Amino acid sequence: xxxxxxxxxxxxxxxxxxxxxxxxxxxxxxxPNLMKQIAVEFIRRYASSEINKIxxxxxSGIAPAIMMGFLLDLPVVFAKKKQPSxxxxxxxxxxxxxxxxxxxxxxxxxxxxxxxxxxLFVDDFLAYGNAAKGIIDLCRQAGAELVGMGFxxxxxxxxGREVIEQAGIRCESLAIIESLDNCEIKLKY
Length: 189
Hints:
Layout: H1 2-11, E1 13-15, E2 19-21, H2 32-45, E3 53-57, H3 62-72, E4 76-79, E5 90-97, E6 102-109, E7 118-126, H4 130-142, E8 145-155, H5 160-166, E9 170-179, E10 186-188
Parallel strand pairs: 3-4, 3-7, 7-8, 8-9
Antiparallel strand pairs: 1-2, 5-6, 9-10
């Protein structure tokens, strides 16, 4: 997706340790027009898939998931990083956050994910595949069918795609970063 790649090169910032900061347009301040283009592209890529729900993990995956849900008239479910006191009957798994360098116990109500669901997971980044593993586990626990996973940005050098493909799940990324060596953003075209 050329618009996204151009925006990453223009406004993305690289930090040591393989960190790409895109908070100017994706995960702190949002560009709604770009988010709509992202949602439309995911919809195009998964047009032949029968999905009845979109799933993500809070917080940065919520914006593209909501935009897709709006355009497809589908519900959006997000796994929470803290269990609300009002939640019972939940699915739970542990996810390690590369960005925050800590583990989260993510939870999701059994009420919103079950065996009749065919879901598409959408998130901002694919790095090591930790969030993906967590969602795969939650879908397995619920008996839901995980149709595919879509990521706005994939850091290919961190090999998260391998985790997803080894699980037999389709993976689509809109922009793929080949390298952030020497804090230089190198995109795959």
